[in-house]
Structure formats: structure tokens, C-alpha cells
Amino acid sequence: MKIVDKLLHFILGVVVLIVALILLCAANPGVREVAAGLAQKIGPIYVPPAEEDEAAALQANAEAESEEPQETKYTVSMDPSLFVYAGELEHVVIDTTDDNTTPSYNDYNDKRDLTDTLDESAISDYNTGNDEYKNLVEEGDDGLLQLDDYLNQTVKKSDAKLAEPEVTDITDPQEAQTITDTVPLGETGEDAEFDELFYPYYHMLGEKEKKLYKQIYANANALTAEFRPVEECTPKQWIAAWDCVFYDHPELFWMDNTKYYEYDYSGSVIKVGLQFYSEIPDVEKAKTRFNDVANEILAGAADLETDYDKEKYIHDTLVNKITYMFNSLDQSAFSSIPNDYTVCCGYAKAFQYLMQKLGVPTYFVIGWGGEMHAWNIIKLDDEYYNVDVTWDDSDPMTYDFFNVTDKKNLMHTRMYQSRYLPACNGTTYSGLENTAVDPKKLGAANDKIYTDAYEYSADLIELLSKAANSKKDSADIKLVISREFFIEWYRAFFGTQYLEDADNSLTYTGDDNSTLTMMFERLDSGDYLISHHVEFST
């Protein structure tokens, strides 16, 4: 289901609430004014005269719903750098008048053509439709490509880089032959072995690409800047192998994420180059510093018994240690271990490296989070989970993106080889960090935590009806809603106003000055307390 459809379904739920409020007009005219105010906020809706009875109101509403739907155009005017691709929005016009417009998801989606570079057997589940992550993507389910105003604040912390390779086209056959004859292979790494549980990207590759992967890995360790591919290959095959080395090996922190190759008149790569950070001139000295800090962090997990306890310790340590900041090393684990300043790529590589050292399979994930973004997948027992240390690094620290399923991993969409990592459906270790909420202790009207618009609307209607019939001047109704439902709730009532800049309350006023004020408060559990205050007109 497309995200626009989901939004419309939610609004329908809100419309149900408005219509029900209208039906309370006979009990209290102030309720009618509040309903009219809500209707004006959400959009045109039939509001019957006060003298009409309930049957007439229902009939009028049914007639309104049966009318032929009109094509609607929505214009989204916002900072283009905060725009999150939301799938195929047929009637959306994006205002991109800013010269600094950043690329959308589609601008990146097809940049890495993996055809003929991956081992078909390694990704057969994905290709045959049995992969649950692929099914989520195709269904457009929660947590994938969507436009979430509440979460747009996190887009500012999505800065993974996929640098385009530097390329030289050798058109002279004699020059190409000279390069082939004189450029050495460097290290071939033919004896290297990579455990599938810890190095999944290697095992996605075809046999030729695996040999290239081993050669890249060996030459990166040997600091060999230029060499000839061990196998005849196309640029696509070389880049696929290089990407997989970059994703699998955070310990190669001195290797820049840019690369170079030369290809001849036949399209074959005849010379490749690795680039190493000039900011790390002495790699051996840097290794010592890197290992010293890493071992100091790892020592804190020595007495922890479970993989979950180790994971939470590393997560919390990195959040407390790292400051989100751009720098020339921010795509490397060195920017976060031992340095303390990095962006999403540095967070993800640090988490990957430290958890792997603790013997817990943890993978680097590249994808879309409003811009190119990086996070992790971790295996605990026999289940897989998403972890985004970067987006949990807030003040105060949260666990909103700690051990979540693909469906609940809001605004994260895997791309390229990361699509073929295991689907994340684990629940055993989800939500253990958040304090369980007791709605009654918070003064809520009932013990529920609402997860959808329809139940929320129905119960709120009933509670408002009781309040109106009580003939009181005002009423206060508190309800608790889930974090996932809050995204929809916030979008429907607060629109495109960004949460970080917005007030946490919204008031609707009727013509006779009756009002409904809604306020939200984030709870330690990650859920939200919604307070509804109604002032009835007299």
C-alpha cells in the first residue's frame, strides 16, 4: 500500500471522528463548533445544520462519500534537502526552486547495476519473492520509503557517501598492452577465507568477483596503491567487488572510499587504484592508536554475559562518545575509533567493528534515509534486527532505532547489495530498553496504547460524547498512542510543520469560541501521551 493511501486512510478515520462530533450537536452546540473547526483543518466535509437529525446527517455523509473522486494535486513546499522520496506520488508537485536541491532516492537507486556480478544462489530467496524484506519494499509498507515530517529531522544525519570512481579510458591499443604487460598484480589474497556469518557481502559475489574481492582486500592491507586485476573484468564487476570489501571490512580504516581504474578499448579494466587517506600518513602508528582505543572500549564488555548486553553497552558507549560532525575521515571507522567526530558511516562502521570483535555478527547497511545513509543489522540468537546508532544519538539518548524490525525501521530503505542481507523480523530483543508505560498512572482514560486511527477515533468520540452529555463547561481526556501511530497522528494534525521547530500543542476554535486543544508528550517508553482539552461554549 502506498504511503499516500495510508495517509488518506488515516484522514478518513479522522473524518469519521469529525462526523461523529457533528452528531453530538444536539447535545451541545459547542461540540458542533469544534467539529467544524476540525473539518476546516482537515479539508471540506459536509456539516449539517443544527436542526437536522442523526439519520439526515448519516445520509448526507454517505452521499458525499459516494461522489466521484476528484483528482487532487498536492504541492509540497519545503526545504528540498529535507524531502524524503515517498514512492510514486502521482499527484504531487515538488517545489524545488532552491538551487541546492539534493538528489532523491530515484537519483541513486539505479546507480549501482549489480547484474551479472552477484551469485544468483546467494540471493535466490530475494529474487523468487520469498525474501520478507523485498516484500515490504514492494508493498510499500511502514518503515520503508515514506514522507514522514516527524522524522525529517533525522534526515540531517544521513551523510553516507558513494563516491564515483575516477576513470581513464585508454583508447590506444599499444598503450593498453603496455599497461597490461608492466603493471603488477600486487597481492592476490588467494588464500584468504571469509566466514559467511561475518562477511556476508563476499558470499554474495560471483566467483570472478570473489577473486577480485580477495585481491582488493590483500592490497589494501599491503598499502598497494596500483595493480592489475587478477581476473579480466568489466568496470561493473570491479566496482561490485570493491563495494563489498568496503562494506565487510571496517578495520580497513585507512582506505578512502574513492577508487580509480583504467579500461581499454574493449571495455576491460586493465589497471586499478586504491586511495588511502592522506590524513593517516603512518598506517602502522594509526593501527596502534585505533586498537588501543577499541580494546579500551571492548574491555568494558568483558564481564557481560549475553550478546544483547554487549550490544547495548557498545550502542550506549558510542552514543555517549561520538559527536555528529563532518570531517575528512567521516566515512571511516577511524573517525569514531579513536576519534570522536563522525557521521552515519562512521557510527555504523564503529558499531560493526566492535560487535564483530565481540563475536556478534553485525553488518554494515547502505541505503536511503532521506539522503544516502548507513546503519547496521545485527544477529542475536537466530534473529536479525536493525540498529541505527546515529539516529539514536540525541539528547537525551533514545532507543527508537535499536533492535527494530524492517517494518518498524522508519525511513530506512536498503539499497544495492544491502538488499540481500537477511530480513529483520526479530522481536525477542526489541523494546527491552524502554520503560513500560502504565496509561492509568498517567491519568489516561483507559489502559490501551492505541496503534491505529480507527480505534483511537472511536474511543475519543465516545469519551467526548460522555463529556458533552455531562453538561460540563470543559473536559480533559488523555490517551496513550504508540510511537508508530504518532507519526500518522502528527502528520494529520500538524501537517508539514517539523517537530523540532513546532509547538507540541494545537487548538481548534469554533465560531462561538468553543475549543479543542490537543497536546502531545513523549514518554520514556517511546510512546506518546495525547491530552485533549475541550472548552464547551455556553
Number of strands: 18
Q: What is the spatial order of strands in the main beta sheet?
A: 12-11-10-9-13
The portion of residues assigned to helices is 25-40%
Mean pLDDT: 79
Q: Which assembly state applies to the chains in this document?
A: single chain
Strand content: 15-25%
Q: What can you see in these coordinates?
A:
By secondary structure, the protein is α+β, with helices and mostly antiparallel strands. The chain has a domain at 3-71 and 436-535. Helix content is 35%, strand content 17%. It is built from 16 helices and 18 strands. The strands form 5 sheets. The chain has a 5-stranded antiparallel beta sheet. The protein has a 5-stranded mixed beta sheet with strand order 14-15-18-17-16. The chain has a 4-stranded mixed beta sheet with strand order 3-5-6-4. Strand 5 (255-263) and strand 6 form a beta hairpin.
